[in-house]
Design a protein that fits this description.
single chain; five-stranded mixed sheet; alpha/beta; Cobalt-precorrin-4 Transmethylase, domain 1; Methyltransferase, Cobalt-precorrin-4 Transmethylase, Domain 2; 267 residues
């Protein structure tokens, strides 16, 4: 059967894969994986291959985007191919495009879901999922250019009383991962330009590092405190809370070491 199966690897290491995903890999004729859309800090390719009993062919962004997945499709036309993706498949638009292209070529596709940073970070923060607005990525500042999009999204969500989840940029092939401190510094630079009091030293923020690992770090507090907190190795994620339910305020204090005065922000 001509088939391409997207399998989510989860968040931290090779043990995060589901039993269904493991079965699909073991039955595959060929296995491919990409690691440029996200970072799995505890992953060992060698251990993954030993566990799955399959060789894992790592493909680059160029293979999937510039070459439009041709290598995967050629193998899928001969049998069953599994494509391993960090987190949950199809969160990245690259993978959605790949699935569409496969279907148009007569290749059947299926998805085996995995744990996603989208739900993990929201859950571990203690903030309620239904109160999040539009998410945004904070990119690296390149050659003095700073994108205003994160600032605008945070402002718009705040005006609606909604939380903002900020993904931090990664350049995996260069082994560069934006940190919470760098992201907050970027937003402070934007505040100096915009002067709308969206990002200040008294802005409440939540930083999360290595969600899905055995010992993730979650720290809530005012911007200056969080910016100087030691979150350790990436990946890092930021949340800007909107209006807080009293239980959310309690969660930030109990689970994320927020200052006691956050209780006064709860409704």
């Amino acid at each position: 059967m001509n088939e391409l199966i997207f399998v989510g690897l989860g968040l931290y290491d090779e043990k995060d894969i589901s039993l269904r995903g493991l079965e699909e890999i073991r039955e595959a004729d060929a296995v491919f994986a990409e690691f440029y859309t996200s970072l799995m800090p505890g992953l060992s390719i060698q251990k993954l291959e030993e566990m799955t009993r399959k060789a894992v062919n790592i493909v680059s962004r160029r293979v999937l985007e510039e070459e439009e997945g041709k290598q995967l499709f050629e193998e899928a036309k001969k049998g069953k191919v599994v494509f391993l993706v960090p987190g949950d498949p199809l969160i990245a638009t690259t993978h959605v495009d790949l699935r569409i292209r496969a279907e148009k070529q007569g290749i059947r596709t299926r998805v085996i879901h995995g744990a996603s940073v989208v739900s993990a970070v929201k859950g571990i923060s203690g903030l309620q999922n239904y109160k999040y607005g539009k998410a945004v990525t904070i990119p690296f500042s390149e050659k003095g250019f700073v994108s205003e999009t994160p600032y605008r999204v945070i402002s718009e969500n705040r005006d609606r009383g909604l939380h903002t989840m900020c993904y931090l940029d990664i350049k995996a092939e260069e082994q560069r991962y934006l940190t919470i401190k760098e992201a907050l510094q970027t937003l402070l630079e934007l505040e100096k330009l915009k002067k709308e009091q969206v990002i200040t030293s008294r802005t409440l923020v939540v930083g999360v590092a290595r969600a899905g690992s055995i010992e993730p770090v979650v720290k809530a507090g005012y911007l200056e405190e969080v910016m100087n907190h030691d979150f350790g190795a990436p990946p890092h994620t930021l949340i800007f809370p909107g209006k807080l339910h009293f239980m959310e305020a309690e969660a930030l204090i109990t689970l994320a070491d927020a200052p006691e005065e956050v209780k006064e922000m709860g409704e």
